[in-house]
Automatic annotation (TrEMBL):
RecA family profile domain segment(s): 93-280
Protein's cellular compartments: Nucleus
InterPro entries with a match to the protein in the record: AAA+_ATPase (IPR003593), HR_Repair_Mediator (IPR052093), P-loop_NTPase (IPR027417), Rad51_C (IPR013632), RecA_ATP-bd (IPR020588)
Species of provenance: Champsocephalus gunnari
Keyword check for S-adenosyl-L-methionine: no
GO CC annotations, alphabetized: Rad51B-Rad51C-Rad51D-XRCC2 complex; Rad51C-XRCC3 complex; replication fork
Pfam families named in the record: Rad51 (PF08423)
Name the record gives this protein: DNA repair protein RAD51 homolog 3
TM ranges: none
UniProt feature, compositional bias: Polar residues: 357-433
Superkingdom to which the source organism belongs: Eukaryota
Amino acid sequence: MKMQISSCSLSPAVKSRLTAAGFHFLSELRGLSPSHICAEAGVSQQEALQVLQAVRGGASMRGGTSGGGEVGGASVGPPPSLTALQLLQEEQSQRSIFSFCSQLDATLGGGLPVGKTTEICGAPGTGKTQLCLQLAVDVQVPVCFGGLGGQVVVVDTEGSFLLQRVQDIAGAVVKHCSLLVEDDEQRVAMTTFSVETILSNIFLVRCHDYVELLAELHLLPDFLSEHPRARLLVIDSVAFPFRLHFDELSQRTRLLNGLAQQLIAMATSHNVAMVITNQMTTRLRGGQSQLVPALGESWGHAPTIRLLLQWAGTQRLATIFKSPGHPGATVQYQITSDGFRDADQSEQPPSKRPRTHTVQSAAGQKDSNQSAAGQRDSNQSAAGQRDSNQSAAVQRDGNQSAAGQRDSNQSAAGQRDSNQSAAGQRDGNQSAAGQRECS
Ligand SMILES: Nc1ncnc2c1ncn2[C@@H]1O[C@H](COP(=O)(O)OP(=O)(O)OP(=O)(O)O)[C@@H](O)[C@H]1O
């Protein structure tokens, strides 16, 4: 049944403006952007956001971002009763997205989990965006290679999505999989697994401020319902739009809390991995300054897993500093022309290589001296094996030399925001194709 605008719980002023603009049912507002609603009805952006919430929540919203109704597309009613055993089985059936850094995946029990929220924090240039781009490609690896065969939505708030870089990473992954082909199923899968299809399965959304980001998050549940193959949602970064334009920190905290609820609900109800990046900020404690993730301590409770990327001298280190299921651990990684990879092991001191969590096969670990891309480590008896729970099947080469095959004819097939014609363009400071000098 259609819900009349007059009977929803928006403020009387907003309702009368909507009605005066010719809207009578909430369903008539579905699919409109906040700026469209602002222009049509003469309401503020904040009010337009509330209207969109009402549209999504079937008008049961009582104001605010978490007032009830629906959150992130998931109905907030009495929770279905599940036994602990059912929950365990559900949890065990959840897959992970591997990162092509086998040490990191092993530490995380197989990679970044679907159905959960993972935050990647780090100073500029540590590789947050590179890891996101790597995951956006990896999530598409066909199932017969141990991947998820999924699609990805990338919400870019910083303008750091570089098409050329994605092409490089995608080219390396395609080449990697082609070297693993062992049977007909994989051969057939490789006929459609190409750089072009990878790009066409990345849906890019550019958000310029927090209002656009919040609006997008209201639209995403519908988008995810229409794209059931989506297994990953990346927000790079959540910090950038929220570190500007906020005089009142309590308002920011309220909005962030609502956003966190939406992400968690979307992750579980649509079975996607939420990967968000966060910047670092300086905090003074005891007269000393230290670098901590931005957005405050209360935001820190939102993600299930928090990963910190940092420099230690010339080494890049990834530290799990929050995870309910894994002990904190630090591993080395590197960023190569092919993407996010295990650190060059020849540079790795033995003490820096925690290998205690070997849930994941070490298929991804290849001696960096192995130049032949197709070589398999004889200890890895099943380098190409297809363990459906083991997403690392394809990760055996951290150093494949073949940089991405670039198809210069490929347009940004997955882009659905018409404003994003320059999807890969960064701001002027970032024009050097992601290659920033990090001293
Ligand atoms: N093609 C490439 N080959 C090797 N390294 C690369 C390549 N492209 C980017 N990098 C490395 O990736 C790093 C930049 O990573 P990234 O853009 O992910 O940083 P970030 O953590 O997202 O930073 P910011 O917060 O500023 O967005 C730089 O150290 C750069 O050297």
